[in-house]
Amino acid sequence: MKEQAIGIFDSGLGGLTVWKELKLLLPHESFIYFADRARCPYGPKRKNTIQRFSDEITNFLLQQNCKLIVVACNTATSAAIKFLRAKYDVPFIGIEPAIKPAAIRSETGKIGILATRGTINGELFKTTSKKFADHLEVIVQYGDGLVTLVEANAMQEQKTEDLLRRYINPMLEKGVDHIVLGCTHYPFLTPIIESIVQGKATIINPAPAVARQTKKVLKQKKLLRSKNPAPYNHFYSSNELPHLASMLQALAMDLPEATTQYFEHYQLTKLPK
Question: Which of 43, 76, 41, 79 is nearest to 61 (CA)?
């Protein structure tokens, strides 16, 4: 069982930012990634719909004999991870906005959260905010449109920068000293966000913490993979993947070796009407 792959899924390509951190920390592990691009974005969708999508993808990943599944989507984590853990006898690692480190480190007592509507309106976000940031001023901003822009590989276009400025500048004007990226798509936008912030606030990407938690659970379950045989990385989608190769190439520049041996495409049979 140790040699089996780790499954990862997201509404689209955003979870690749989590895959990168996992690969950096766990270079000997194999990964099977599923992007539900046919039904992306998840943010505006209802909870029971997201649960159904997550259930379908989990079934597929388990058919590929995954030993652990990372829900690399904030919205899916909020809507479905309790449901998935109750239904399946396999470890699940979720992702949520990194409110705790932002709250601990804040000196102004003001932190910003940039996330999807599904994440911000979810119970997990509300619980975490109350637990760790109840004493702070939390400025919340819906990141409407950002996921679609990342999926279209439009990170360098002016309309993307204009939208980010509209979202981030009000946070800075209110004195936030930390901005939490509450969607796995948003780290692709970090260079633009940094140019807007200009050092006035620390940008927090929760993906490294997800990788650390995954390693911790693998060790606890005695599921860490040995060095041999060579690891593999499979990438699937419920729709076409026109930008996957270029995004992986950009992410792989930070990896110690070539890790994207080949890609595969898989079409989900149950798609929304």
Answer: 76
Structure tokens at 107: 């000196």
User: pLDDT in tens for each of the 273 residues of the chain?
Assistant: 788 999 999 998 999 999 999 999 998 999 999 999 889 899 889 999 999 999 999 999 999 999 999 999 999 999 999 999 999 999 999 998 889 999 999 999 999 999 999 889 888 888 889 988 999 999 999 999 999 999 888 998 999 999 999 999 999 999 999 999 999 999 999 999 999 999 999 999 999 999 999 999 999 999 999 877 788 888 888 887 777 777 777 777 677 654 445 555 555 544 333
**Are 26 and 218 within 8 A, CB to CB?**
yes
Cα R_g (the chain), whole angstroms:
18
One domain, residues 109 and 241: no
Asked if 73 is an active-site residue, the reply is yes
- Please state whether the predicted TM-score (pTM) of the whole model is above 0.85: yes
* 263 lies in some domain: no
Q: Which domain holds residue 45?
A: 6-95+208-252
Catalytic residue of the set 146, 183, 247, 251 = 183
- Examine the residue annotation and report whether 66 is marked as an active-site residue of this protein: no
Catalytic member of 5, 68, 69, 73 = 73
Has residue 265 been placed in a domain? no
